[in-house]
Design goal:
Radius of gyration: 18 Å
CATH superfamily of the largest domain: Nucleotide-binding domain of ferredoxin-NADP reductase (FNR) module
Shape: globular
Order of helices and strands: EEHEEEEHEEHEHEEHEHEEEE
CATH topology of the largest domain: Rossmann fold
Number of domains: 2
Structural class: alpha/beta
CATH class of the largest domain: Alpha Beta
Largest sheet: 7 strands, antiparallel
Distance between the termini: 29 Å
Strand order of the largest sheet: 4-3-7-1-2-6-5
Number of helices: 6
Bound molecules: flavin-adenine dinucleotide, FE2/S2 (inorganic) cluster
Helix content: 10-25%
């Protein structure tokens, strides 16, 4: 797999509110090589900058022509520095990294995103046929359902939920999924579920799929220092023993491979 370590110009930085931004970077070779579910390590500033020392991992939101997009939330020092970058500034970018989603156009696809778990799912949605694709997005409140509108052209059905009831169904996105799974199974179809979001949500999705015999792939997050398999800092317990490294075995993993009891 082709992996590049380059300095690339920021094209735009769009503030979507609630501390969420959409970053566009001109990086033709990375954009062309990128697959849905892969990620990049980003670092604001010149290669000599050591503060912060480590790059930060971000899912590829999507790639379009020569441009690669990231949807991210400002949470600490690294993301604050990235958020301060303006068009023309140069960002360090290493990628594309990791294993992405299995893409199956033959089956019905259900994409489930919680919070900024929508980030990698958008690239996947763009890569699937609209027909047979259902998208379920949930967040704490409506303002945090970032770019939900952008999913509409890419799915037959888009369902939204918010914890506070400010948009879509009042409740958790996993409740939406539970109902939808029952309806889908009644039609005789076995869908493929692809999920990304906070760990408890993804674990609940994996459990729902497991008890209903439905294949499920999950995009996981772990603290990452290198992103390339060198530091072993992103290890999570594997079902049946041993470990998986989220950066190289994932970030997208077959949910059946993860030991959900002892992880996180
Ligand atoms: C494969 C992968 C893909 C990711 N994709 C996205 C994305 O598309 N959009 C996005 O906004 N974020 C994404 N993240 C999380 C993102 O990497 C962190 O938010 C970022 O590293 C925080 O850096 P910071 O210096 O601003 O915060 P720090 O100062 O390092 O930390 C601030 C807070 O964020 C928490 N945090 C830091 N890193 C992580 C992490 N990896 N997982 C969970 N919590 C973390 C810390 O515990 C702390 O509470 C992804 C993480 C991984 C591993
Ligand atoms: S982040 Fe270093 S091995 Fe995964």
């Amino acid at each position: 797999m082709k992996r590049l370590d380059i300095s690339a110009p920021v094209l735009s930085q769009q503030d979507l509110g609630h501390g969420i931004l959409l970053l566009a970077i001109l990086a033709p070779e990375i954009a062309k090589a990128a697959l849905p579910g892969q990620f990049c390590m980003l670092h604001a500033g010149s290669p000599e900058t050591t503060d912060p020392l480590l790059r930060r991992p971000f899912s590829i939101h999507y790639a379009d022509g020569d441009t690669i997009f990231f949807l991210y939330r400002v949470v600490g020092k690294g993301t604050r520095l990235i958020a301060a970058m303006r068009p023309g500034d140069v960002i360090r970018i290493l990628g594309p990294l990791g294993c992405g989603f299995s893409i199956s156009a033959e089956t019905k696809n259900i994409l489930v995103g919680g919070g900024l778990g929508t980030a990698p799912l958008f690239f996947l949605a763009r890569s699937l046929p609209r027909e047979g694709t259902t998208i379920m997005l949930g967040a704490k409140t409506s303002g945090e359902l970032a770019r939900a509108d952008a999913f509409l052209p890419h799915a037959e059905k888009v369902f939204l939920s918010t914890d506070d009831g400010s948009l879509g169904q009042h409740g958790l996105v996993t409740e939406l999924l539970a109902g939808h799974i029952q309806r889908t199974l009644c039609t005789g179809f076995l869908p493929l579920v692809s999920a990304c979001g906070p760990w408890p949500m993804v674990r609940a999705v994996a459990h729902l799929c497991h008890i209903n015999g439905i294949p499920c792939q999950v995009s996981l997050e772990a603290r990452m220092a290198c992103g390339t398999g060198l530091c072993l800092g992103c290890a999570i317990p594997r079902s049946g023993g041993g470990y998986l490294h989220v950066c190289t075995d994932g970030p997208v993993l077959d949910a059946a491979l993860v030991d959900w009891e002892t992880s996180q």
